[in-house]
Design goal:
Order of helices and strands: HHH
Radius of gyration: 15 Å
Length: about 100
């Protein structure tokens, strides 16, 4: 199941609560869709998820990256295995907004 927010404007308690009714926290993964979603929206959503009382520390660590290791075990071979908290999440530095190429 894929759940998406619109550029960081998700009602996190409602969406996350509903998702956890049908899916185990071990299936949560965070993705930002950056650079198509503005960096400020990515940061806002990540902060809301980090502060959500619906997730304990183990669930957060899984969402930020540990759950992905079960799907992509080769990530363990990259040398970076610190996925224990949101500090492992590399949030983008805000830059200019994305502008699609215009036809010539």
């Amino acid at each position: 199941m894929y759940v998406e927010s619109r550029q960081g404007q998700a009602p996190v308690p409602q969406q996350l609560g509903a998702l956890l009714q049908v899916a185990d926290a071990g299936h949560l993964h965070y993705g930002s869709d950056y650079p198509f979603t503005p960096a400020s929206a990515c940061v806002s959503l990540a902060q809301a998820l980090q502060e959500s009382p619906l997730l304990d520390e183990a669930a957060r660590a899984g969402m930020w990256g540990r759950n992905a290791l079960g799907l992509f075990p080769r990530l363990l071979k990259t040398g970076s295995t610190d996925v224990s908290s949101s500090s492992a999440l590399a949030l983008p530095t805000p830059g200019p907004p994305y502008e699609p190429a215009r036809p010539v």
